[in-house]
Amino acid sequence: MDSLTVMHNVPVKVVMTESFRVQVVEQIRSSLAELDQESARLNEFLTQAAEDAFRVRLQEELQRVAYQKQQLEWRIKEAESVAEGAELFFQTLPSQLILRVGDNIQEKMGVEVLLKDWKIVEIRGGTA
């Protein structure tokens, strides 16, 4: 065998722009609103719950929701503080990679994609 096709995760970075910042903050605020609704439902159940074990589970769930809200609020602050033009890790994408005898694996796997306002502006590194 002289080649092998493998799955590889390619990192995707994004250039911070005002447009991207606004979209990210809006998405986070939408998630916060959903968590507020979930918290309200849990509190309503808590006021009606009679069994202690059920009340404990509801309180634990409320704590989990509160923690998630705190994390999202932190992400808003983080997004608002990132400098325009900064490159941030966004996600990974699965990709097939063909490895051949004699390839430099560091070069083959050292690929990343750069986005700006959801458009690919650069594919860095790697060899064909």
SSE topology:
Layout (H helix, E strand, L loop, with lengths): L2 E13 L2 H31 L3 H30 L5 E14 L4 H5 L2 E5 L2 E6 L4
Parallel strand pairs: 1-3
Antiparallel strand pairs: 1-2, 3-4
Helix pairs in contact: 1-2
Question: Explain this structure to me?
Answer:
This protein has 128 residues and is an alpha+beta fold. It has 2 domains: 62 residues, no CATH class; 64 residues. It is 52% helix and 30% strand. It contains 3 helices and 4 strands; from the N terminus they run E-H-H-E-H-E-E. A 4-stranded mixed β-sheet has the order 2-1-3-4. Strand 3 and strand 4 form a beta hairpin. Helix 1 runs antiparallel to helix 2.
Give the helix proportion (percent range).
40-55%
- Whole-number average pLDDT? 92
What's the overall geometry? Answer: elongated
> From the helix content, strand content and strand pairing, which structural class follows?
alpha+beta
Beta strand %: 25-35%
* Strand order across the largest sheet: 2-1-3-4
How many domains in all? Answer: 2
Oligomeric state as shown? single chain
Count of alpha/pi helices: 3
Count of beta strands: 4
Query: How would you spell out the order of helices and strands?
Result: EHHEHEE
